[in-house]
Each structure stands twice: as C-alpha cells, then as structure tokens.
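[job 0417] fold request received: Lipoprotein signal peptidase
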Amino acid sequence: MRKLLATPWCWYLLALVVIVIDIVTKVWAVDRFMYGPALQIIPGFLQFTYAENYGAAFSFLADAGGWQRWFFGAVAVIFSAVVIVWIKRLPLAKRWEPTALALILGGALGNLWDRMLLGYVRDFISVYHGSWHFPVFNVADMAISVGAAMLLIELLFFKDNSEEPGKNGAEV
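[job 0417] inference complete; emitting structure tokens
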C-alpha cells in the first residue's frame, strides 16, 4: 500500500472510486425514483428524486438544441487530460492538491460518462427550503465541488514552501 501511495496511481484510483460511486448511485436513483415518488430524507430540506440535466452546471445551455452535449463532452475530455498530467507532475509528498484534483477528475469523468452515453446527466439529490430549490445534483457534482473548494483553500491558506527564498536552491 505504501508503494501505491508513492505514485500518482493512488490519485487515479481515488478518481475511479468517485466514478464508480457516482454511476452506482445514479443507477440506483433511476431505478428507485424515475417513475416513483421522491424520498424525503430531511423533510423540508433534503430529498432524493430524479432529474435529467441536458446542460452544464445549473442546467446552463440545457435548451441549446443538442450541440452542448458534444461541447461539454469535449471540454470534459480536455480538462480531464490536463488534470491527469497535473497529478502526474505533482511532487509525491503532496496530498491535499492531488486529492482535490482526483475528486474533480472523478466527478468530471462520472458526468462525462452520462453525457456521452445518454446525452444528459442524471441528478437525484435535491436540497430545498420552502419554495427555494437548489438545482438537483449528484455524487459527481459533490466531488467536483469539494475538490474545487479544496483547491481554493490551498490557494488561499497554504503557501508552497518551494517558492520561499533559500528553498530548493532558489535565492532572491
């Protein structure tokens, strides 16, 4: 296990776990909620339901006529390739950044799977209060959001020691 953690493969494995959990939960949601009632988890706040998103985040461009499927698919493929290379080039000692990137990669590929296979993304988690409803989302969306928040936290609060004067032979 220690040897696996010393390679980028552990981060790719984390991305794969996100993809598998995302697909399994989407299959479950389709089976349970596509033709049935929503399941109240926390009444008045959280429920499982079923929705199809033909656009991107928050149904952006959902009514664009079909071209957005291929556009968002291409963006996801290019972005995923960049993240795969980014993870590979990170120092092996890093943990926070590659974890964040692996979550984003797994989420992007989980939604890409739906988009290419079905032409839309399956969503099933609904958060609401009264008449206010947050857009329905899925496990891939949560992974992307958590990963992006982790990258933002790193950017704002953690300084890369390799940029300090005198570190790694860098003098100012």
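[job 0417] notes: The first helix runs from residue 2 to 5. The CA atoms of residues 38 and 130 lie 16 Å apart.
[job 0417] exit 0
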